[in-house]
Amino acid sequence: MWRFLRVPIGGALLGLLLHPTLLQAEPRPFVVPTLRPNAGLFALLNDDKERGVAFHLPVGIAIGWTSSGIGRLIERTPWLLPELSYELRTSGHHTSHAVSLGCGFGYGVLPPIIGTYTPRIVVGSADGQAAFGFRHGFGVHILMSALSFELSHQVLRTSALTTHEIQFTAGLNLGLLILPALWD
After folding, report:
1. How far apart are CA 16 and CA 32, in angstroms?
2. Chain segment 1-39, per-residue pLDDT in tens
3. How far is CA 71 from the centre of its chain?
4. Angstrom distance (rounded) from CA 170 to CA 173
5. Residue 170 CB: number of other CB atoms within 10 A?
6. H helix runs in the chain, sequence order
7. Contact yes or no for 101/60 (Cβ under 8 A)
8. Which candidate, 162, 87, 175, 171, places its Cα nearest to that of 131?
9. Among residues of the chain, what percentage have pLDDT more than 70?
């Protein structure tokens, strides 16, 4: 019976040797900066069923609650991802420029994967008219949030029209370049 417990006990002891305070550390906020240009495709769900390209430039932070040291790399934690973003969407007949403000809610382990849900308010212009709307989406952030993918639904209202669209975007987090300066 002890033979089967050698690996788990050895792993636990190795963890304690690598970081002696791992069991004593209280969770505290851990911040990862985000500057994540992303691009993708969108499809209008209205009568014209038009497709186009979407570009977003979100700036924000990802906040997780982990212990210090190696705990940041192995603990599952809830995450908050507040962001402010510029957005451009264009197709054959439609163009929109907007700013969005939102806060994602997620869960996962920072290095491998974090899953998120992000609601956003969208304000800007669509086809030269003032526009206001809402977008919400499910995202996956991989490898310390270096890569991200999101599938989202947006409702955008102008004085003449309400559009529904589906978007799929992928991006790289350039904010990770300043992360080593934030670690203690």
Report:
1. 25
2. 445 545 455 555 455 445 444 444 566 787 889 999 999
3. 21
4. 10
5. 14
6. 2-18, 71-74, 179-182
7. no
8. 162
9. 78
How big is the chain, counted in residues?
184
Complete DSSP assignment for 149-167: EEEEEEEEE-SS-EEEEEE
SS3 75: coil
Contact between 121 and 102 under an 8 Å Cβ cutoff? The reply is yes
Work out the number of other CB atoms within 10 angstroms of the CB of residue 92: 9
List the beta bridge partners of residue 153: 136, 166
Residue 53 structure tokens = 């390209």
- At which residue do the structure tokens 């790399």 appear? 73
Amino acid at site 154: Q
Mean pLDDT, the chain, integer: 83
149: Cα separation from own chain's centroid: 8
Report residue 148 as tokens: 């991200």
Rounded to 5°, angle at Cα 139 from 137 and 141: 160
pTM across the whole model: 0.79
129-142 and 147-157 beta bridge pairing: antiparallel
| Single-letter residue type at 113 | I
